[in-house]
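ok so i was messing around last nite and threw this chain in just to see what happens. nothing serious, just curious
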Amino acid sequence: MNVVVVGAGYAGMLAANRLAKKVKTAEITVINARPDFVERVRLHQQLAGTATAATPLTSMLREGIASRVATVEKIAAGTVALEDGTSIGFDYAFLAVGSTARPMPGTVPVGTWEGAERARVRLAALPAGSTVTVVGGGPTGIETAAEVAEVRPDLAVRIVGSSVTGGFSHRAYERVRSGLMRLGVDIVDDGVVEVADGIVHLRSGAEFASDLTLWAIVSGVPDLAARSGLHVDAEGRALVDEYLRSVDDERIFVVGDCAAVPGARFACALATAQAAHAADTLNRLIERREPEPYSLRYVARAVTIGRKYAVGQFTRPDDTLRRAYVTGRTAAVIKELASRGGKYGARTGTGA
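result:
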Protein backbone atom coordinates (compact mmCIF):
# COMPACT_ATOMS: atom_id res chain seq x y z
CA MET A 1 0.00 0.00 0.00
CA ASN A 2 1.47 3.32 -1.11
CA VAL A 3 0.80 6.41 1.01
CA VAL A 4 1.96 9.87 0.00
CA VAL A 5 2.08 12.71 2.52
CA VAL A 6 2.20 16.16 0.95
CA GLY A 7 3.68 18.67 3.37
CA ALA A 8 6.09 18.14 6.25
CA GLY A 9 4.81 20.54 8.86
CA TYR A 10 3.28 19.50 12.17
CA ALA A 11 0.39 17.63 10.57
CA GLY A 12 2.35 15.92 7.82
CA MET A 13 5.18 14.75 10.07
CA LEU A 14 2.86 13.36 12.71
CA ALA A 15 0.63 11.62 10.16
CA ALA A 16 3.59 9.94 8.46
CA ASN A 17 5.26 8.79 11.68
CA ARG A 18 2.06 7.61 13.32
CA LEU A 19 1.00 5.66 10.24
CA ALA A 20 4.45 4.06 9.91
CA LYS A 21 4.18 2.87 13.48
CA LYS A 22 0.67 1.45 13.12
CA VAL A 23 0.70 0.10 9.54
CA LYS A 24 3.92 -1.81 8.98
CA THR A 25 3.01 -2.69 5.39
CA ALA A 26 2.59 0.91 4.28
CA GLU A 27 5.19 2.38 1.95
CA ILE A 28 5.17 6.04 2.92
CA THR A 29 6.68 8.93 0.99
CA VAL A 30 6.74 12.46 2.39
CA ILE A 31 6.96 15.25 -0.19
CA ASN A 32 8.03 18.69 0.95
CA ALA A 33 9.37 21.80 -0.76
CA ARG A 34 12.21 22.03 1.79
CA PRO A 35 14.58 19.34 3.12
CA ASP A 36 13.70 20.43 6.66
CA PHE A 37 10.85 20.28 9.11
CA VAL A 38 10.20 23.89 10.09
CA GLU A 39 8.83 24.33 13.59
CA ARG A 40 6.59 27.21 12.75
CA VAL A 41 5.83 28.31 16.30
CA ARG A 42 9.56 28.97 16.74
CA LEU A 43 9.99 31.23 13.73
CA HIS A 44 9.84 34.30 15.98
CA GLN A 45 12.82 32.83 17.84
CA GLN A 46 14.56 32.09 14.55
CA LEU A 47 14.33 35.74 13.50
CA ALA A 48 15.45 36.93 16.94
CA GLY A 49 18.43 34.57 16.87
CA THR A 50 17.43 32.72 20.05
CA ALA A 51 16.61 29.32 18.48
CA THR A 52 16.77 27.34 15.28
CA ALA A 53 13.39 26.46 13.82
CA ALA A 54 14.53 23.95 11.17
CA THR A 55 15.48 20.28 11.57
CA PRO A 56 16.40 17.92 8.69
CA LEU A 57 13.50 15.70 7.66
CA THR A 58 15.75 12.65 7.70
CA SER A 59 16.25 13.01 11.45
CA MET A 60 12.52 13.45 12.13
CA LEU A 61 10.98 10.60 10.13
CA ARG A 62 10.72 7.02 11.36
CA GLU A 63 12.91 4.42 9.72
CA GLY A 64 11.50 3.24 6.41
CA ILE A 65 9.75 6.50 5.48
CA ALA A 66 11.04 7.99 2.25
CA SER A 67 11.30 11.75 1.75
CA ARG A 68 11.47 13.76 -1.43
CA VAL A 69 12.21 17.45 -1.81
CA ALA A 70 9.87 18.66 -4.52
CA THR A 71 6.98 21.00 -5.29
CA VAL A 72 3.60 19.39 -5.89
CA GLU A 73 1.69 20.66 -8.89
CA LYS A 74 -1.54 18.66 -8.51
CA ILE A 75 -3.18 15.75 -6.71
CA ALA A 76 -5.74 13.80 -8.74
CA ALA A 77 -6.79 10.32 -9.82
CA GLY A 78 -4.49 8.52 -7.42
CA THR A 79 -1.44 10.44 -8.57
CA VAL A 80 0.66 13.27 -7.15
CA ALA A 81 2.07 15.27 -10.06
CA LEU A 82 5.29 17.17 -9.33
CA GLU A 83 6.49 20.43 -10.80
CA ASP A 84 9.49 18.70 -12.43
CA GLY A 85 7.17 16.61 -14.60
CA THR A 86 7.42 13.36 -12.63
CA SER A 87 4.62 11.81 -10.58
CA ILE A 88 4.03 9.40 -7.69
CA GLY A 89 1.05 7.07 -7.47
CA PHE A 90 -0.80 6.46 -4.23
CA ASP A 91 -3.45 4.31 -2.65
CA TYR A 92 -4.00 6.97 0.00
CA ALA A 93 -2.70 10.51 0.38
CA PHE A 94 -2.51 13.05 3.18
CA LEU A 95 -2.77 16.70 2.15
CA ALA A 96 -1.04 18.71 4.88
CA VAL A 97 0.30 21.89 3.29
CA GLY A 98 -0.72 24.17 6.17
CA SER A 99 -1.38 27.89 5.90
CA THR A 100 0.64 30.84 4.75
CA ALA A 101 1.19 34.56 5.19
CA ARG A 102 0.18 37.25 2.73
CA PRO A 103 2.14 40.27 3.90
CA MET A 104 1.24 43.86 3.23
CA PRO A 105 3.74 45.60 0.91
CA GLY A 106 6.52 47.19 2.94
CA THR A 107 6.52 44.45 5.59
CA VAL A 108 8.45 41.22 6.16
CA PRO A 109 6.38 38.13 7.06
CA VAL A 110 7.14 36.25 10.26
CA GLY A 111 5.10 33.11 9.53
CA THR A 112 7.27 31.66 6.76
CA TRP A 113 10.85 30.35 6.86
CA GLU A 114 11.97 32.69 4.10
CA GLY A 115 10.36 35.68 5.78
CA ALA A 116 11.82 34.85 9.18
CA GLU A 117 15.30 34.57 7.65
CA ARG A 118 14.95 37.93 5.92
CA ALA A 119 13.75 39.45 9.18
CA ARG A 120 16.65 37.89 11.10
CA VAL A 121 19.22 39.46 8.79
CA ARG A 122 17.57 42.86 8.86
CA LEU A 123 17.04 42.81 12.63
CA ALA A 124 20.67 41.97 13.27
CA ALA A 125 21.74 44.93 11.15
CA LEU A 126 19.60 47.50 12.98
CA PRO A 127 21.58 49.98 15.08
CA ALA A 128 20.58 50.88 18.62
CA GLY A 129 17.67 53.29 18.77
CA SER A 130 15.93 51.86 15.71
CA THR A 131 12.21 51.09 15.72
CA VAL A 132 10.66 47.68 15.02
CA THR A 133 6.92 47.42 14.39
CA VAL A 134 5.05 44.14 14.61
CA VAL A 135 1.72 44.09 12.77
CA GLY A 136 -0.73 41.59 14.25
CA GLY A 137 -2.22 41.40 17.73
CA GLY A 138 -2.65 37.62 17.87
CA PRO A 139 -0.28 34.95 19.24
CA THR A 140 2.29 35.29 16.45
CA GLY A 141 2.47 39.04 16.88
CA ILE A 142 2.60 38.88 20.67
CA GLU A 143 5.37 36.30 20.73
CA THR A 144 7.37 38.10 18.04
CA ALA A 145 7.19 41.50 19.73
CA ALA A 146 8.14 40.01 23.10
CA GLU A 147 11.05 38.02 21.71
CA VAL A 148 12.51 40.98 19.83
CA ALA A 149 12.07 43.31 22.80
CA GLU A 150 13.78 40.90 25.18
CA VAL A 151 16.70 40.14 22.86
CA ARG A 152 17.18 43.73 21.64
CA PRO A 153 16.37 46.07 24.55
CA ASP A 154 18.26 48.76 22.63
CA LEU A 155 15.42 48.95 20.11
CA ALA A 156 11.98 50.56 20.33
CA VAL A 157 9.43 47.78 19.75
CA ARG A 158 5.79 48.41 18.94
CA ILE A 159 2.93 45.95 18.35
CA VAL A 160 -0.07 47.13 16.32
CA GLY A 161 -3.37 45.38 15.83
CA SER A 162 -7.09 46.10 15.77
CA SER A 163 -7.31 44.36 19.14
CA VAL A 164 -3.93 43.42 20.56
CA THR A 165 -4.29 40.36 22.84
CA GLY A 166 -7.99 40.28 21.96
CA GLY A 167 -7.85 36.48 21.92
CA PHE A 168 -7.70 36.55 25.72
CA SER A 169 -10.11 37.93 28.27
CA HIS A 170 -10.39 38.89 31.91
CA ARG A 171 -7.16 38.58 33.92
CA ALA A 172 -5.33 36.64 31.22
CA TYR A 173 -5.78 39.60 28.88
CA GLU A 174 -4.28 41.89 31.49
CA ARG A 175 -1.36 39.52 32.15
CA VAL A 176 -0.44 39.30 28.49
CA ARG A 177 -0.49 43.07 28.02
CA SER A 178 1.41 43.75 31.25
CA GLY A 179 3.99 41.16 30.21
CA LEU A 180 4.54 42.99 26.92
CA MET A 181 4.78 46.34 28.67
CA ARG A 182 7.34 44.98 31.15
CA LEU A 183 9.56 44.26 28.18
CA GLY A 184 9.07 47.81 26.94
CA VAL A 185 6.70 46.98 24.08
CA ASP A 186 4.42 49.82 23.05
CA ILE A 187 0.88 48.52 22.41
CA VAL A 188 -1.23 50.23 19.74
CA ASP A 189 -4.82 49.09 19.25
CA ASP A 190 -5.41 50.25 15.70
CA GLY A 191 -5.53 48.84 12.20
CA VAL A 192 -2.71 49.23 9.67
CA VAL A 193 -3.83 50.42 6.25
CA GLU A 194 -0.48 50.95 4.54
CA VAL A 195 3.26 50.70 5.05
CA ALA A 196 5.20 52.84 2.61
CA ASP A 197 8.68 54.38 2.62
CA GLY A 198 9.25 53.35 6.22
CA ILE A 199 6.02 54.96 7.44
CA VAL A 200 3.21 52.93 9.02
CA HIS A 201 -0.21 54.44 8.34
CA LEU A 202 -3.04 53.57 10.73
CA ARG A 203 -6.79 53.43 10.23
CA SER A 204 -7.24 56.27 12.72
CA GLY A 205 -5.13 58.55 10.55
CA ALA A 206 -2.08 58.39 12.81
CA GLU A 207 1.29 57.42 11.36
CA PHE A 208 4.81 56.74 12.57
CA ALA A 209 8.23 55.79 11.24
CA SER A 210 9.44 52.19 11.40
CA ASP A 211 12.89 50.88 10.48
CA LEU A 212 11.66 47.28 10.25
CA THR A 213 8.01 46.30 10.00
CA LEU A 214 7.15 42.63 10.60
CA TRP A 215 3.92 41.05 9.36
CA ALA A 216 2.73 38.63 12.04
CA ILE A 217 -0.63 37.61 10.60
CA VAL A 218 -1.24 34.12 9.22
CA SER A 219 -3.89 34.20 6.52
CA GLY A 220 -4.90 31.94 3.69
CA VAL A 221 -3.67 28.56 2.55
CA PRO A 222 -1.68 27.36 -0.47
CA ASP A 223 -3.91 26.83 -3.51
CA LEU A 224 -2.94 23.19 -4.09
CA ALA A 225 -6.37 21.82 -3.14
CA ALA A 226 -8.20 24.23 -5.45
CA ARG A 227 -5.62 23.69 -8.19
CA SER A 228 -6.24 19.96 -7.89
CA GLY A 229 -9.96 20.40 -8.47
CA LEU A 230 -11.00 19.63 -4.90
CA HIS A 231 -13.93 21.55 -3.45
CA VAL A 232 -12.74 24.31 -1.12
CA ASP A 233 -14.31 26.93 1.12
CA ALA A 234 -14.00 30.70 0.74
CA GLU A 235 -10.52 30.63 2.31
CA GLY A 236 -9.30 27.92 -0.04
CA ARG A 237 -9.36 25.13 2.54
CA ALA A 238 -10.36 21.71 1.25
CA LEU A 239 -13.82 20.54 2.28
CA VAL A 240 -13.73 17.32 4.30
CA ASP A 241 -16.18 14.77 5.66
CA GLU A 242 -16.50 13.77 9.30
CA TYR A 243 -13.48 11.48 8.93
CA LEU A 244 -11.21 14.25 7.54
CA ARG A 245 -11.34 12.88 3.99
CA SER A 246 -11.81 15.11 0.96
CA VAL A 247 -15.48 15.24 -0.03
CA ASP A 248 -14.29 14.62 -3.59
CA ASP A 249 -11.96 11.65 -3.04
CA GLU A 250 -12.08 9.33 -0.02
CA ARG A 251 -8.48 8.32 -0.67
CA ILE A 252 -7.28 11.81 0.27
CA PHE A 253 -7.16 12.83 3.92
CA VAL A 254 -6.81 16.56 4.54
CA VAL A 255 -5.37 17.68 7.87
CA GLY A 256 -4.16 20.85 9.52
CA ASP A 257 -4.71 24.45 8.48
CA CYS A 258 -5.56 23.53 4.87
CA ALA A 259 -8.58 21.44 6.00
CA ALA A 260 -12.00 23.10 6.25
CA VAL A 261 -12.95 21.54 9.57
CA PRO A 262 -16.01 23.37 10.96
CA GLY A 263 -15.02 25.53 13.94
CA ALA A 264 -11.27 25.06 13.48
CA ARG A 265 -8.84 27.97 13.44
CA PHE A 266 -5.23 27.99 12.31
CA ALA A 267 -3.26 26.24 15.06
CA CYS A 268 -0.44 23.72 15.17
CA ALA A 269 -2.03 21.88 18.08
CA LEU A 270 -5.22 21.34 16.09
CA ALA A 271 -3.12 20.19 13.12
CA THR A 272 -1.44 17.43 15.12
CA ALA A 273 -4.73 16.29 16.63
CA GLN A 274 -6.28 16.02 13.18
CA ALA A 275 -3.24 14.22 11.77
CA ALA A 276 -3.30 11.66 14.56
CA HIS A 277 -7.01 11.05 14.06
CA ALA A 278 -6.66 10.70 10.28
CA ALA A 279 -3.78 8.23 10.62
CA ASP A 280 -5.80 6.20 13.11
CA THR A 281 -8.80 6.30 10.77
CA LEU A 282 -6.78 4.89 7.88
CA ASN A 283 -5.47 2.17 10.14
CA ARG A 284 -9.02 1.28 11.17
CA LEU A 285 -10.14 1.15 7.53
CA ILE A 286 -7.24 -1.14 6.62
CA GLU A 287 -8.20 -3.44 9.48
CA ARG A 288 -11.83 -3.31 8.27
CA ARG A 289 -13.01 -1.63 11.43
CA GLU A 290 -15.58 1.16 11.60
CA PRO A 291 -13.91 4.61 11.57
CA GLU A 292 -14.73 7.20 14.21
CA PRO A 293 -15.76 10.77 13.28
CA TYR A 294 -13.32 13.50 14.20
CA SER A 295 -14.43 15.60 17.15
CA LEU A 296 -13.02 19.10 17.52
CA ARG A 297 -12.49 20.07 21.14
CA TYR A 298 -10.56 23.04 22.42
CA VAL A 299 -8.85 23.14 25.80
CA ALA A 300 -6.91 26.39 26.03
CA ARG A 301 -4.94 29.06 24.23
CA ALA A 302 -1.58 30.39 25.29
CA VAL A 303 1.39 32.57 24.38
CA THR A 304 4.97 32.88 25.49
CA ILE A 305 6.14 36.37 26.38
CA GLY A 306 9.88 36.33 26.08
CA ARG A 307 12.14 33.43 26.96
CA LYS A 308 10.77 32.46 30.36
CA TYR A 309 7.19 33.70 30.85
CA ALA A 310 3.91 32.44 29.45
CA VAL A 311 0.18 33.00 29.87
CA GLY A 312 -2.46 30.38 29.21
CA GLN A 313 -6.22 30.74 29.29
CA PHE A 314 -8.58 27.80 29.44
CA THR A 315 -11.46 27.60 27.01
CA ARG A 316 -14.68 25.72 26.66
CA PRO A 317 -14.73 22.93 24.05
CA ASP A 318 -16.19 25.38 21.50
CA ASP A 319 -13.22 27.77 22.05
CA THR A 320 -15.15 30.39 23.99
CA LEU A 321 -13.09 31.78 26.84
CA ARG A 322 -13.26 30.79 30.48
CA ARG A 323 -12.06 33.01 33.31
CA ALA A 324 -9.55 30.40 34.48
CA TYR A 325 -5.97 31.04 33.43
CA VAL A 326 -2.41 30.09 34.34
CA THR A 327 0.78 32.16 34.25
CA GLY A 328 4.38 31.59 35.15
CA ARG A 329 7.48 30.00 33.73
CA THR A 330 6.89 28.64 30.26
CA ALA A 331 7.57 24.98 31.08
CA ALA A 332 5.14 25.05 34.01
CA VAL A 333 2.38 26.64 31.93
CA ILE A 334 2.83 24.11 29.12
CA LYS A 335 2.73 21.25 31.61
CA GLU A 336 -0.49 22.54 33.15
CA LEU A 337 -2.15 22.99 29.76
CA ALA A 338 -1.06 19.55 28.60
CA SER A 339 -2.52 17.97 31.74
CA ARG A 340 -5.94 19.24 30.64
CA GLY A 341 -5.55 17.83 27.12
CA GLY A 342 -7.58 15.12 25.50
CA LYS A 343 -6.77 11.93 23.62
CA TYR A 344 -3.96 13.48 21.61
CA GLY A 345 -2.73 15.99 24.16
CA ALA A 346 -3.62 19.59 24.90
CA ARG A 347 -5.22 21.13 21.83
CA THR A 348 -4.26 24.65 22.72
CA GLY A 349 -3.56 26.30 19.40
CA THR A 350 -0.57 28.16 20.85
CA GLY A 351 1.69 30.28 18.74
CA ALA A 352 -0.09 29.80 15.47
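not much to say yet. The chain is about 25% helix and 30% strand.
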